[in-house]
Specification:
Largest sheet of chain A: 6 strands, mixed
Shape of chain B: globular
Strand content of chain A: over 45%
Distance between the termini of chain B: 34 Å
Radius of gyration of chain A: 14 Å
Distance between the termini of chain A: 39 Å
Order of helices and strands of chain B: EEEEEEEEEEE
Largest sheet of chain B: 7 strands, mixed
Shape of chain A: globular
Oligomer: heterodimer
Helix content of chain A: under 10%
Order of helices and strands of chain A: EEEEEEEEEEE
Number of strands of chain B: 11
Strand content of chain B: over 45%
Amino acid sequence: QKEVEQNSGPLSVPEGAIASLNCTYSDRGSQSFFWYRQYSGKSPELIMFIYSNGDKEDGRFTAQLNKASQYVSLLIRDSQPSDSATYLCALIYMDTGRRALTFGSGTRLQVQP
Amino acid sequence: DAGITQSPRYKITETGRQVTLMCHQTWSHSYMFWYRQDLGHGLRLIYYSAAADITDKGEVPDGYVVSRSKTENFPLTLESATRSQTSVYFCASRGTGSSGANVLTFGAGSRLTVL
């Protein structure tokens, strides 16, 4: 099992601020990285994925990947109360010749109106 | 309706009873997965299936059995439920998103309580 570490939070930010969510991982061979959002009592839904070092932007969301330092981040600009949820980091790594997906335990984000 | 559906959504059972959680998807995705989610542990893979009649263990398979006789269905059975199996169970299938990425889509979840 490859480790994916996330601060459980809660991370509290005021409405309109930038929320920064971080994830570190242990396996240098990890290939693909995903951010899922999970509202309380609901199932996870994919927000973004990133494969290459650098930044990837999609609307208010930016994923940042630094493979040398083994971290991946999610920035949420102009945070809204509707962004309040748990954010799960996930990655794909090779496990005995097959691709495996593992999840972090998530960071709870609270956006204060 | 297109999508992935799980049933039952809520189940209370007693220790030692057999329980089956159902999962059905309409996309004809090859890959299907069962996860459990517990506080502090995130999502942990129980079993997955690459196609009909092909299944494999995940991280926490003990006490669970799966089958996949048809592409669209992937039931999960707890042969003799234990209290430690109280959890929220998510079924997921994997398809290719519009961007080409392999995307996991989750069902709504089944909340199981074992007394």
